[in-house]
Amino acid sequence: MPAAPPIVLIAAMSADRVIGAGDGMPWDVPEEYQQFRELTRDQTIVMGRKSYEIFGPDLTSRHTLVVTHREQVDGPGVACSSLESALEQAAALGCTVFVAGGAAIYQQALPRAAEMMLSTIHGEFSGDAYFPEFDPAEWRIVDRCVERRFTFTHYRRREL
Ligand SMILES: NC(=O)c1ccc[n+]([C@@H]2O[C@H](COP(=O)([O-])OP(=O)(O)OC[C@H]3O[C@@H](n4cnc5c(N)ncnc54)[C@H](OP(=O)(O)O)[C@@H]3O)[C@@H](O)[C@H]2O)c1
Questions:
Q1: Per-residue pLDDT tens over the stretch 59-89
Q2: How far is it, in rounded angstroms, from Cα 80 to Cα 69?
């Protein structure tokens, strides 16, 4: 069995970790969304079924593994019965593995993540889905880029 590849969490959030409101995100920052599409282009995305139903048509990934209790999903996504099952399948595909939400999947994947690529959208937003809390002391910032409407931060987990 191939070794488990490092997992990269990728998300856009508000300063207080809001990631979603209803069936979408409570902001409209197309340049950030386009950056997400470029970073994940031709790679593997692991996503929860609800997020796949929202964002599936826009994805540029080569492989999309959808965590769900359902037998199958519409479109090119492949249904996986658990996060573990999705990550096992991802290991065989040879691409960078991005975990792209939503809240339920970030929560489960955070302890296993080696990197995070987080865009903080400037401004205040309310919503009903949140990125999990994490301890900044466990993460090293390897890159930060301040754009007009968002700040992108690339974190790598510190070695123990
Ligand atoms: N800002 C961002 O970067 C970003 C990115 C992605 C999503 N979002 C937001 O996140 C929100 C959606 O998040 P969410 O937490 O409600 O949904 P989600 O994580 O996208 O999907 C939840 C679904 O995943 C499946 N699932 C979760 N854990 C599972 C497990 N252990 N085994 C099998 N299936 C499992 C279940 O699907 P079934 O019901 O089919 O069994 C569950 O209903 C939306 O507001 C969306 O806009 C934001």
A1: 999 999 999 999 999 999 999 999 999 999 9
A2: 8
Instruction: Name every residue whose Cβ is closer than 8 Å to that of residue 87 and which is 6 or more positions away in sequence.
Output: 4, 7, 46, 97, 112
pLDDT digits (tens, 9 = 90+) for 4-29: 789 999 999 999 999 999 999 999 99
- 98 in any annotated domain: yes
CATH number of the domain enclosing 117: 3.40.430.10
Ligand 1 neighbourhood includes 26 CB (under 6 angstroms): no
Give 67 Cα–ligand 1 centroid separation in angstroms: 8
Residue 90 lies in a domain: yes
Which pTM was predicted?
0.97
Q: Distance between alpha carbon 130 and the CA centroid of its chain, in Å? A: 12
Q: What tokens were used for 102?
A: 């939503």
Q: How many domains does the chain have?
A: 1
C-alpha–C-alpha distance, residues 2 and 60, integer Å: 24
- Quote the tokens at residue 35: 């950056």
Mutate to test the pocket of ligand 1, among 50, 65, 98, 131 (most ligand atoms within 8 A of CB): 50
Ligand 1, atom nearest to 36 Cα: 3
Q: Is 47 helix (H, G, I), strand (E, B) or coil?
A: strand
